C-alpha cells in the first residue's frame, strides 16, 4: 500500500522538516505487521513529494491473526490486505509521521501552522460503496477528488466491477489536518481494523476528529465504522460529538463576546447568586449542574454548607479539566472533596450516575442545543432523572436590543436559538403539564 504527499510551495523541500524525514535518505520503520519505507521520489524548489510505502508481512498477518476474519477457508491467505490502504496504513501514519500528525515541527512550526497546497495520492483504496462513498467522506471536508476505477479482471467481466480505486485528493489546509483526515477515514473506508477496538480507540477518534468530525454530515457513519460497530463505544463517541460545536473551541470567542456584552450589568453573576440563593431556600441536599462549564456555580455552592452533594456535568472534557483547576480540587480538604464530583456527559442521554439528585440546574445551556434535541433533553431531565426541583435559565431575545444588537443577532455565536419570554414560558408549562411539575417564572 502506497501513500504519497505532494507539497506545492515556493519552499517545497521544507516538507522534510514538516515530516521529520530527510529528503536525501530512504528510511525504514519496523512495525508489528510489516515495514514502512519513507522516500522522496520528487524534490524540486517548488514541488516535493514524500512517499510512505507499507510493505506487509503476510506470514506475520496469518501468525498473529490480525486484519482477517473467518470466511472462506483460504481467506487468511487470499485477501487484499497487503495492497489496499487500510487501518494498517493509518497506523503507519501515526507511527512514522506522528509529529506531523500532531501539528508540531521543531524547525518549521510556522509552516506547520499554515494552510498549504497539498496533493495526497493513495495507490489503491477499497470502497464497497463505490465512488459515492468516497465523495461522502472527503468532499464535505473540502477536497477535490480524482478517481481511477480498477476492475477485478478484464478477462472475467462476470466477476464484477470491483471496489478498488486509485484516489487523489487536493486541498489547501494544514498538514496535521490532512493527516488527521486520512488517519480516521482510511479505516472507515476499509470498514475493518487489524486490531482489537476498545475505549482507547474512542479517545483516538475524538482526538484526531477534533475540529472537523462533529460538523461532518456523515459523522454517524464514520463513528460506527471506525469503532467497528460497537454500540457502547459508538454511543459514547456520538454523545461527545453531538454538541462539540459549543464546548471545545467554537464557543470560546462567543463566550468572550457574550461576557463583554453582559459585564456592565453583571447578569451572569446575578443569575448564579439567585440560583444559589434559591437552592439554599429549598434546603436541597444534592444538586447536579448540567453544563457546569468551568464550575462558577459549583464554587458558590461549595462555599455553603449545603447542598452536601454536588455533581458537575459537561460535554467538554477540556472544560472539565479547567473546572478541576479553577475549583482547586487538589487543595480541598477530604471532606470538601467528597462533596464534589465532575462527570463527562451530556444531558441528551440517560445517565444512571445522576439518578437520585434532588435538584438539577441548567444555566444558559438549553439555547446551545439544536432545537430538534430540546425535546430529547426535556425527556431525559423531567422524565428520566425526575429531580424534585429543576432550575433552567435562558436569555430572551427581546432583551438583546438593550445591548444595541439588531433583532436577528444572537448573544452568543453558538446559540442555536433564543426564545422570547412567551416562548420560554410556553415550553416550561408544557414540560410541567407533561411530567407532573408545577412551574414558576421570574426575570433576572
N-to-C series of helices and strands: EHEEEHHHHEHEEHHHHHHEHEHHEEHEH
Kindly name the structural category: alpha/beta
Rough shape?
A: elongated
Strand order of the largest sheet: 2-3-4-1-5-7-6
Distance between the termini: 62 Å
The poorly predicted ranges are: 66-70, 245-253, 261-265
- Rg from Cα: 26 Å
How many strands appear in the DSSP assignment?
12
Strand content: 15-25%
Mean pLDDT: 84
- The number of distinct helices, counting runs of at least 4 residues, comes to 17
Major beta sheet summary: 7 strands, antiparallel
Classify the helix fraction into a percent range. 25-40%
Question: Care to give the gist of this entry?
Answer:
With 444 residues, the protein is an alpha/beta fold. Helices cover 37% and strands 19% of the residues.
Please tell me about this protein's structure:
The chain is α/β, with parallel strands linked by helices. Helix content is 37%, strand content 19%. It contains 17 helices and twelve strands. A seven-stranded antiparallel beta sheet has the order 2-3-4-1-5-7-6. A five-stranded parallel beta sheet has the order 10-9-8-11-12. β11 (359-363), α16 and β12 form a beta-alpha-beta unit. The longest helix has 16 residues, at 175-190. The chain is elongated, with a radius of gyration of 26 Å. Residues 66-70, 245-253 and 261-265 have low confidence and may be disordered.
